[in-house]
Amino acid sequence: MATVGYQHIICDPTKCIGCRLCEYVCSLTKTNAFDPAMSRIRVVRIEPITMTAIACRLCADAPCIFACPRDALTRSSKNGIILVDQDKCDGCGWCLEACDFGAIVMNPTTKRAEICNLCEEQEDGPQCVKYCPKEALSLSTPEVVGQQARREVVQRLFEELLAQKE
Amino acid sequence: MYSYTGKILHIDVGTQKTWVQEVSPEFLKKYLGGVGLATRLVYDNTPKGCDPLGPENALCFACSAFAGTTMPVGTKHGVASKSPLTGFIGDSLSGSHFSEMLKRAGWDGLVITGKAPKWTVLFIDDDQVRFLDASPYLGMGTIETQKAVRKALGDENIRVASIGPAGENLVLYAIIDNDGRQAGRTGNGAVMGSKMLKAIAIRGSHPITVADPQGLMRETLKLIQISQGPGTQKYRILGTPTNVLNMNKMGTLPTRNFQQTTFEHAEEVSGETMHEQYTVKAVGCAGCSIACEQWAEVKEGKYKGAIAGLDYESLFALGPCCGIGSLPPIIRLAQLCDELGLDTMSCGVVIAWAMECYEKGILSKEDCDGLELNFGNDDAAVALVQKIARREGIGNLLADGTKRASAKVNKGSEHFAMQVKGLEMPGYDVRGMKTFAAGLAVCTRGPCHNRSLAYEIDVKGVVNRFIAEPGRGKLIKEKEEFAAVFDCLVLCKFLRNCFENFYEEAARLYTMTTGIPMTAQELQEVGERVINLKKAFNIREGWTKADDWLPPRALSDPLPTGPGQGCYVKPEELRMMIEDYYQARGWTPDGLIPKSKLIALGLEDIAEDIGVEEPAVVTQSVTASK
Asked: 3-class DSSP state for residue B255?
C-alpha cells in the first residue's frame, strides 16, 4: 500500500452545507428506514456557519480497539475498517468515549456499538458520498487530500502571478 | 401508514392538558401537510371571531410528508394561526430540522391553545409533554435560546423553535425561529408570545419509514443531481440577492418606501457585491441540496463582526426601501431582526414608512425619541429595530405594523403605508407588474410573493407587465395553486425548475413516500382546495372584497423612473383583474365562495359554514369549467 492511512470518509467543511442528507441516506442504507439516530455518519452544525460531517477515520492506532474490554472490535485486514462483533459487544460504550472524533454510534435499538464500514456491502461504495449534493464527502486519505491541496494552491498562485504580469 | 404518523398532538398550555387526534390517510391526502394541514387545523380549532392574541387562537404546526427523507428540500414545516397582523389566516413556512424531529417524535402536526400561567418551554419528548420554566431564557435572542434550551436539556440533538424578545413583547410581526430559519410572516411569533410560550423543544426517537424506499432513493438521487444544474443556479451561486440588480433594471426595486423604484446604490447592495465582498458560507436547510442561504459577514468598519444569512426580501426591505445603500448596515439589521425575532420584511417596510413620515414632517424628532429618521440613516434604523422589538418609545407604535401605525398617526400617512390586509408588501413594486398587482391584492395571507408567485408571469415576459387585461385572473389562479401544492407537500419552491412535469413527478414521489395513491390531477386539486380553505377562513373571520385591494400609493403615484415610468395601477384596472380572478376561481363577483364549489372540493362542512347559494349563471360557469 503506497499510502500511510486507510481510505475513509472525509468531509470538506467549506463545501458542507449542513443538510444532513448523509445521515438520512446512511440510516436508510443500514436499516431501510430514515432514522438519523442509526446513522454512522453525523453532521455537526455549530450556528451559524460551522458545519461538517464525521464518520470513522480508521485511525492507525485505533483507540477504540484498545478500549474495548471484550475484544469486540477488530480491524479488517481487507480495507482497514473497524469491525464490531455484535455478539461480543455489550454496549458498554467505552469505544464511543475513546474515539476523539465521536465517530462511533450506539444503536438505540440493539444497544450495540456501530461503526462506518464504508458501505462495503454496497456495489457502488459509500452511499453518503454518492448522495452528498455538494461533493463535500469523499472516500479518500489525508495524503490524497494533501496532494489535491498542493496542486490547488500551486495552480492558484501561478494564476495570480500570471495575472499580475499581464 | 408510511411517512405520516396519523397523529396530531393537541396541547392546552393553560390547563397543561394534552390529547391525541387520529387522522386518516384520506384526511391527510386532502391537505398533505405544511400550510394545507396547518390551515385546516387552524380552521377546526380556532373559534370564529377569536382574538388572535387571546388563548383561543390555535397555533398549529404541520410537518411535510417528505420530512426526514432524502427528498431534497422536503424537510420543512408549516405554521399557522389567526394572524394578529391581518386578522385572517396567518400561514408561514420554515425549513430545517424541526420538521424532521416533530415527525420522529410521532406527530404529523401540533395544535397549541390556551395561555400558560407563566413563561414556559414546551418539551415534547416523543409522546411525553413537559412544561418547563422559561424564566432563564427571557429576553434572550432566538438562536441563543435554542442553544441554552438544548444545553439545559443535555442533548444536542433536540430541535428547538423559539421566539425572541419581539415575540415576548407581542410585536405583531414577530417570527418563530428554528435552527436559524424562520416562520417569518404574519406574526406567528406574537401568537406564540401571547401563549407565554418562549420555546418548543422536540426530541423524537422513531424511524421514518416510506412505502418504496428503493424507488424513493433512486428518484431523489436524480433530483439531487438535477438540483445542482441550471434550474437552481441563481440560488446556489448568488442566492436570491441576485434579484437586486434585476429588479433595479426592471424599475421595480422598492426604494425609499416605494417612492422610487430604481436605486442609485443598487450596485453596492447587489448580490454580486455581496458575493465578492461579504459572503462567507452557503448553508442549507435539513435535507436541502441547493443551499440558497448565503451568509454574509462584515470584516471591518463600524459593523465589524455582523453576520447574517441574507436573502433578497430581507435585503430590499432593510436596504433600498430604507434608502440604505451599503451592505454592512443591512447585514447588521438582518442579524438584529433574526436575533430579536422580527420579520425582516415587515420591519424594513415599517421603518421605511416611519422615515417617510419623518421627512414629510408627519413625525417629529421628538416623536421619534430624538432619532433623525432620514432615509439612509443606518444608525437610526439600527436603534429603531431594537426599540421595536422592545416596544420602547416610537417602537411601540411601529411594533403594530404600518396599517395600525398609519391609522393612529393619520395626516395622510395611510397613503404610503405599504400594506395589504395589514401585512407589509414584498420587494416588488407592483406598479410595473400588473398581474402581480392583482395577485398581491387577492392573496389570502396578505401580499406575499411566495404564496402568489404571479410575479413570474410579469418577470418572464409571459404578458405585457405594464398593462392590465382580462385573462390575468386565470394566470394568477394557476400560479397560486402551483405555489400552494409546494407549500403543502412541503417542498421548497427553489426546486420548482427541476421538474419536467411537476404534478406528475411530485404525485409519484408522494405515493412512493406515503403509500397513498395520488394522481397529478388530484395533487393539483389540493392546491385549489387549500386556496379555497384559506379564503373560507378569511370569509369566516369577516373578509369582504374591500380587503382585496392595494395601498393608495400603488393606485395613484406614477412610477418616477425606470422602464415603467409613469405607470401606476388604475383602480378600475385592479377591479377588473380582481373580478376576472374571482370568476376564474368560480367565486361570486363579491369574492364569496359558492356552496357547490366547496362541495366539489370536498369541503362540505365548510360549505355549511360560509358557502353562498350562487345565482344560476355562476352555477353554469362552474359546471362548464369542470
From this structure: strand
Residue A159 is assigned to a structural domain of this protein: no
Chain B residue nearest residue A49, CA to CA: B281
pLDDT of B182 higher than 50: yes
- What confidence tier does B617 reach under pLDDT thresholds 50, 70, 90? low
Q: Which long-range contacts (CB under 8 A, 24 or more apart) does B521-524 make?
A: B522/B29, B523/B485, B524/B481, B524/B485
Q: Do A33 and B283 touch (CB under 8 A)?
A: no
Beta-carbon contacts of B326 under 8 Å, excluding residues fewer than 6 positions away, are: B265, B268, B269, B378
CB contact under 8 A, B221 and A130: yes
CATH of residue A112's domain is 3.30.70.20
As for how many domains chain A has, the answer is 1
In a domain, A166, yes or no: no
Instruction: Dump pLDDT digits (tens) for B351-387.
Output: 999 999 999 999 999 999 999 999 999 999 999 999 9
Query: pLDDT grade, residue B616 (50/70/90)?
Result: low
Q: What is the largest CA-CA distance in chain B?
A: 69
Cβ distance of A48 and B104 shorter than 8 Å? no
Min CA distance, A132 vs chain B (Å)? 8
Output b/e per residue, B55-71; b: 16+ Cβ within 10 A: bbbbbbbbbbbbbbbbb
Q: Does A164 touch chain B (CB under 8 A)?
A: no
Query: Does the distance separating the beta carbons of B100 and A19 come in below 8 Å?
Result: no
Identify any residues that bridge with A113 across adjacent strands, giving them in sequence order: A106
In total, chain B counts a number of residues equal to: 626
Q: Over the range B202-234, which residues count as b (16 or more CB within 10 Å of their CB) and which as e? A: bbbebbbbbbbbeebbebbbebbebbbeebbeb
In this complex, which of B207, B280, B284 lies closest to A18 when CB atoms are compared? Answer: B284
CA torsion angle for A34, A37, A39, A43 (degrees, to 10)? 110
| A12 Cβ under 8 Å from any chain B Cβ | no
A146: distance to nearest CA of chain B, Å? 22
Report yes or no: B401 and B173 within 8 Å, Cβ to Cβ.
Answer: yes
Cell triple for residue B381?
434604523
Residues of chain B contacting A, Cβ within 8 Å: 68-70, 72, 97, 100, 104, 143, 146-147, 157, 179-180, 205-210, 213, 217, 221, 224, 227-228, 280-291, 295, 307, 309
**Chain A: nearest CA to B159, how far in angstroms?**
12
Length of chain A: 166
Contact yes or no for B72 and A21 at CB 8 A: yes
Closest CA to B425 of B399, B452, B398, B388: B452
How many Å lie between the alpha carbon of A91 and the closest alpha carbon of chain B?
A: 18
d(CA B77, CA B58): 16
Three-state secondary structure call for residue B132: strand
SS3 content of chain A, % helix, strand, coil (to 5): 30, 15, 50
Q: Is residue A147 part of a domain?
A: no
Domain span at residue A124 reads: 8-140
A20 closest CB neighbour out of B221, B280, B286: B286
Neighbours of B264 (CB within 10 A): 13
Residue B245 vs residues A74, B242, B250: alpha-carbon distances, Å: 59, 7, 9
| Any B CB within 8 A of A5 CB | no
The percentage of residues in chain B with a pLDDT greater than 70, rounded to a whole number, is: 98
Query: What pTM was estimated for this model as a whole?
Result: 0.96
Is B318 in contact with B333 (CB distance < 8 Å)?
yes
Residue A44 lies in a domain: yes
Query: What confidence tens digit (pLDDT) does each residue in B32-61 have?
Result: 999 999 999 999 999 999 999 999 999 999
Tens digits of per-residue pLDDT, A2-48? 456 799 999 999 999 999 999 999 999 999 999 999 999 999 999 89
Test A47 with B70 for CB contact under 8 angstroms: no
Whether residues A48 and B143 touch (CB distance < 8 A) is answered with yes
